[in-house]
Design goal:
Number of domains: 2
Low-confidence stretches: 1-6
Structural class: alpha+beta
Mean pLDDT: 91
CATH superfamily of the largest domain: MM3350-like
Number of helices: 4
Distance between the termini: 26 Å
CATH topology of the largest domain: Structural Genomics Hypothetical 15.5 Kd Protein In mrcA-pckA Intergenic Region, Chain A
Oligomer: single chain
Helix content: 10-25%
Radius of gyration: 18 Å
Largest sheet: 7 strands, antiparallel
Shape: globular
Strand content: 15-25%
Length: about 210
């Protein structure tokens, strides 16, 4: 098995030539009320490009590993380029190498996106539509969404519930102080800023 360090990854490059955009709905599992975002991205994106867009739209800080999971009985994993697969794992696909068009061929197609294997945040990514880009618009683009992303390293869905509880009257003061200005219902499309997949990739490898 070829290890991560022996793999030559393609460095992400932004494509300015695309004729269509994918529209995705991203919803976070295990939390009520639901936390979700609706975004549009170029159809020329790879899964790594989508990963960066998800991180930025949701409000994650990209501190941890991620993986896309496709299928159930014969699940295919599209791994983070920073992953260190075990020798017995047959990892054939990396997020930097796989175009979204490979799997998103029809409306209604969905994949799972798992972030931070400790807190284990599971997202459902559903293709809602394929459209023409609007003149003068920049993509990726966040259309709408609801509720703030959970704080990083808060402990998964159970820890998120503890964070919400801490903000109530007589809640846990230490956790409330740790949360700072975070509020569960605070989300604004206008505050979503999309970064460069290329810059994120190079930063991750210390280049």
């Amino acid at each position: 098995m070829t290890t991560q360090h022996e793999v030559s990854f393609k460095i992400p490059r932004r494509s300015h030539s695309y004729k269509e955009v994918f529209q995705f709905r991203i919803s976070l599992s295990g939390i009520t009320p639901q936390i979700w975002r609706r975004i549009q991205v170029p159809t020329t994106f790879t899964f790594y490009d989508l990963h960066v867009a998800i991180q930025d739209a949701m409000g994650w800080e990209d501190r941890h590993l991620h993986v896309f999971e496709i299928g159930v009985s014969q699940m295919m994993r599209i791994e983070c380029p920073h992953a260190e697969p075990e020798p017995w794992e047959n990892v054939q696909y990396w997020t930097t190498e796989v175009p979204l068009k490979t799997h998103f061929k029809r409306v209604g197609t969905s994949v799972a996106y798992r972030y931070d294997f400790g807190d284990d945040w599971l997202h459902l990514i559903e293709l809602e539509g394929i459209a023409k880009p609007e003149d003068g618009e920049l993509y990726p683009k966040c259309l709408n969404g609801e509720r703030a992303c959970p704080p990083e390293d808060c402990g998964g869905p159970g820890g998120y519930a503890d964070c919400v509880e801490a903000l109530k009257k007589n809640g846990n003061k230490e956790r409330r102080a740790w949360l700072g200005e975070w509020r569960p219902d605070a989300f604004s499309v206008k505050k979503v800023k999309f970064g460069s997949p290329r810059a994120r990739f190079l930063k991750g490898f210390g280049e």
